[in-house]
Amino acid sequence: MGPARIAKTAPEPGARSLPTGWDAARARLDGLPGGGLNIAHEAVDRHVAAGYGTEVALIWLGREGGRRTLTYADLAAEAARFAHVLRAHGIAPGERMFLLSGRVPELYAATLGAMKAGVVVSPLFAAFGPEPVRARMEIGGASVLVTTAQHYARKIAGWRASMPSLRLVLIIGDTAPEGCVALGPAMARAPDTFPTHPTAPEDMALLHFTSGTTGLPKGVVHVHEAVVAHAETGRLALDLRPGDIYWCTADPGWVTGTSYGVISPLCNRATMVVDEAEFDLERWYTILEREQVQVWYTAPTAIRMMMRAGAEAARGHDFGSLRFLASVGEPLNAECVIWGQKVIGLPFHDNWWQSETGGIMIANTADMDIKPGAMGKPLPGIVAGIVARDGDTVIEQPDGSIGELALRPGWPSMMRAYLGQPERYAKCFAGGWYLTGDLAMRDSEGYYWFVGRADDLIKSSGHLIGPFEVESALIEHPAVAEAAVIGIPDETAGEVVKAFVTLKAGFRPDEALELELRGHARKRLGAAVAPREIVFRDNLPRTRSGKIMRRLLRARELGLPEGDLSTLEGDAR
């Protein structure tokens, strides 16, 4: 269970107080003046109304070296203009807007402006290929897409005509292809104030997609009430305080990049650093130093890449402004925690949550001792347990037992549905628990330790990848008869995708075909999702009912116990 604990750093007197319950957390927010609750109002408008409009909300760092700052008043005005653009094109409250863009200021204005107008926001990972984008927009019933001309040409234009719900495509910049609207001129013509739509706490605000082991991606529904947890967990788990310089490195297409890359820091009146560029070690160290970042939230993959570069890469940089380091996206190795303490002068604080929980549930907070390798303890207001399922019965397990991590329902950011899949949603709850699908252990001091996933999802660089989606893309190639995908350990990414395929008659398994299949997958899915390796097989292990046994492939690949083979059809090796 990892090395000895790292003692907490004494918090500043009066810096933080714990809530007695979610009612106390709600009381820290304002609510809409006429009643109701809206995320955009809590994130920007209330701060402007309270006299903090001149404080910096966002520092944007361009890929090519540009730098732009937006105050809270600036961001509120940009959000209002975007809301007017939606209304001018007939987009009504409750409709769904998808975002497909890198980290540019327009994305943040669009996110807040849409919620201000009562429009549901669904972010997409910019590295997705055309098929994942299309699938999610079809499931979500997209009315609006905000994207770039490049993304539109490569990923949208070819199938747009087949999606009649998509009535408006806004192109970031001053020009747009035929049939689309240039966002720059449209916002320049719009007023800079907009009356916030009177959303109720249970009105849908966000739609995040997460992959399943079978079937299509799941659309996870979150409501405006989630802002209660976004704000409070940022305060408690990330130690966010008004005026902090805060950097969340998560892509805005993932739930972390929305909950803690936009909403939580703004609700806590922090200043967000947004870097348009992808990971570059020297650039990151320079940003931490030059921008005087105080709170840094990043991923274990990035930490491992820093470790691979060695302590010497960090020498010469002054990290004295940093106060709190945190990490999320996959289990944080104990070595990463200790490395942070040794090289940067502070340990990384792990925390755990899911798209379905909407916010951090378990964390190593600033006022806790850290046990390197542990996820931490449940935050105030969160009741967690380790359980075992016995049919329809859920049995709580004692400390020291490995079982499924479960949470008592009722926290504000809990998902309200899987869009259009009520039965799938209902299966997540049993015996008064939300069942997470993750295996964990709780020790005698109440710390939780991640063990593994209870299903086949692949977690690569913090991204969840559903095998079915990758397999489907591979099978589209004329040479492929069947495909099975697993995750295999990788020192940097945690896991990478490996595919096993069987070929149709007339095709020869060779290096040229493997390269062709990998290129096909990258084109369809994007580099983040496509397999890193493809292995040809004469057949694949399957159950007697015809289901391919990914579990068995992974066990054989890694030399793990194969488990129960009673349902195996023959001996497909």
Structural description of this entry:
GO terms for molecular function: acetate-CoA ligase activity. Residues 1-20 are annotated as: Disordered. The radius of gyration is 24 Å and the shape is globular. Helices cover 29% and strands 24% of the residues. It folds into two domains: 38-438, ANL, N-terminal domain (Rossmann fold, 3-Layer(aba) Sandwich); 458-558, ANL, C-terminal domain (GMP Synthetase, Chain A, domain 3), CATH 3.30.300. The longest helix is centred in the N-terminal third of the chain and has 17 residues, at 72-88. The strands form six sheets. The protein has a nine-stranded mixed beta sheet with strand order 2-1-11-10-12-13-14-15-16. Strands 17, 18, 19, 21, 22 and 23 form a six-stranded antiparallel beta sheet that branches. Mean pLDDT is 90; it is low at 10-20 and 564-568. A hairpin with a 7-residue loop joins β8 and β9 (218-223). The chain contains 16 helices and 28 strands.
End-to-end CA span:
35 Å
- Spell out the CATH superfamily of the largest domain: ANL, N-terminal domain
CATH topology of the largest domain: Rossmann fold
The side-by-side strand order for the widest beta sheet comes to 2-1-11-10-12-13-14-15-16
Tally the beta strands: 28
| Structural shape | globular
Tell me the CATH architecture of the largest domain: 3-Layer(aba) Sandwich
What fraction of residues sit in β-strands? Answer: 15-25%
Mean of residue pLDDT values: 90
- What structural category characterises the helix and strand content? alpha/beta
